[in-house]
Amino acid sequence: MSDLVDAAKKTLLDNRRSGYTLPTNNKLYPAQWNWDSAFISLGYSYFNLDYAIEELETLLKGQWDDGMVPHILFHEADDSYFPNHITWSCGKEVPSSGITQPPIAASILNIIVKNNQLNKIQNEKVFKLVCKLKKYHEWFFKNRDKNKSGLVSIIHPWESGYDNSPLWDFALSKITIDQNLSYERRDLKVSNNDERPLSKDYDCYITLLNQFKSENYNPNKLLDISMFNIIDIGFNSIFLKANKDLLELLKLYELDYSGFKEKIDKTENSILDLYNEKENMFFSFDLKNNVQIKIPSLTNFLILFADLKHDNVNAKIIKNLEEFNINEKYFFTTMNPNHNSFEEKRYWRGPIWINTNWIIYRSLINKNKNFAEKIKKNTIQLINHNNFHEYYSSKTGLPFGANNFSWTAALYLDLVLS
Ligand code: GLC
3-state DSSP call for residue 30? Predict the structure, then answer.
């Protein structure tokens, strides 16, 4: 096992550029991604705390003036990726995309701060990170909470981090595709077609991008005009937990936290309205089309990460989760295998991803230790047999997508060493 710990560290170091780390060493993702960096930072914290802090510093260097932290930062003018910095054509100090990703950074930072003894310089750096994260979270409340309910919208599937999840199929089917779309996908040159999103999904992704660009990414407008507007359970659960973690950090660093406790309470109350008692499941809500998204996605279970105060609801959801992958060799699949949208190989439509496993594992430590341990063991086994890949088959464990995948390596370190 220790060989693999060394290999995990090496994977991160090999993928490291100046101050940030690529998601993988192949040509698939030649830039810095928001939530990848947070997971990666946790990995570094087990062997190089300075790199861990620097990873987040570099990410937050890309923060926009209004507080938004983009989902991609293009530190190098590499146009081998699509859509690249030229397509997005935005960003401040660092060219970037014009949308965000799950804001898990505050939760990761809180773990790092709790696990480590920081020296004076590190502490000063973390203080600055906390200030920036506060601004990021305020941006969400200001610009993404249409009904002032404490729940925030995503306006592009890429913002969820689970790009082509079946959760978005209906909403995407309602989008009017740009007539003049012309683009070339680069991902298919370095990845298998049957493991990647479909072209019809890409047409929607790029149509949305073009719409946002034509509005100059003006946050005051995007929420109203976007053809995609969803209150996603997974995203809001991560956001709620991140706000709880941010509150702890604000207190620790003696920063102003007024209003945060109230905001957290509001989100917590509002998210409970999305609980469907009959199906014993939380479901996302499509604000654009005014419908509940009753799709059995693993990401609905990220509600456990939010640490809701309602022990009885948590216990019921855990029971449901125990049955989610009852017949799979490895778990957790991103979609319930009994659902007709499940695909064993295709990206976020079925395969196992280590970051969602890790989030669920972390969620269960304080709720059901045995189950948490079982998830940890199964995930470690999967990686031990198949190395650090992007995603895996639940049937065979066979790896898909990119290899030398940074967050898989980083989270392996946390699973094995924490
Ligand atoms: C894909 C994934 C996203 C990830 C990115 C870089 O777009 O869907 O979650 O952040 O690749 O790894």
Answer: coil
